[in-house]
Amino acid sequence: MAEAEGLRDIYGLLVNKDCAELLQTYAPIWLQSNRAAEKKACSLLNTAAEQLGLRQAGQGTVVLHDARHADIINAVLEELVASGGRHAPELYAQLVDLVHEGLPNSLRPHAWPQFLQAHKRAPAQHYSRLVALQQLLCRHSISTSSSTPVATNGNSSNSGTGSQDSSSTAESVVAGIDANGMSQSTADAEAAGAAAQAAAAELGITAEQLLLWRTHWRVWEAQIDKDCRRTFPGHDWFSDPSAGGAAALKRVLSAFCLAAPQLGYCQGMNFLTGGLLLLLLLPIEQQQQQGLAVQQTSSSGGDIGQGATTAAAEAAVCGCLLCIAEEVLPGYYSPAMVAPQVCVGAVY
After folding, report:
1. Model's pTM, two decimal places?
2. DSSP 241
């Protein structure tokens, strides 16, 4: 089906020619509804910030489109979701109503990761170390089969802590590889393999999971490479290699396979992940390109720069994907794909 030349939706996707007239007819209605939802959401966020004591000194009215208010928006949502209405039942009820009526687009990048608890499944530091380890393992195919199994530390799984230990472990892995990517000696290779397994254990990946990943990673990576080129080909952010969309998509999908090798990669994950990236990551990159991105303050009081903000958004996408595949839609994104087959069977 042909696409309307130059006509794109709010996410930058080309609109099919047959749908162009419908989009142009109903877009003003949707925009009006979205503005009303934004007004309602801002009222809720401001009231909640006051009642929950989350408003910082000198901070003005919360504005959804202002990146400087991202921290307080996330803090309000996190508090409401975590309490489940116990501390502020009326505010929680208003949030539920807002979800049922339809969240405004500008609130979704904040709300969806909170609802899916993405920050618990893939904190930014945890995700960055997961990506680094995955790339090392792929690049050098470090063998772990002869390594002594390392027990998983339950306190470190998905916690985002121990970054210093993990960094030193990663350096140990790199140290076992020479400039040509080959092991300097058998002893070095074994040491590097043990270091890689230790780094995986710190990230909550057991020796059995690492072995499962090593069994299938080449097939997964080949399929991911193919599907990244097929994902939203009409969108400049994905089709232009220099834009960063395809690279971010590959990182998230590859990291997912290492974090959940019992599921691995299934076709269809690319579009789900691509949609999450359009919602969570692309707006941040656009703000940075326009010079609108600002430094945010972390809970520890340190500054989070633009690069860290982008990494946090990418980590949130990975966390959302893990929750959707493992909890929200169990069986849909799995090797056997049992759930889709059951659904198809029920329909036909």
Report:
1. 0.78
2. T
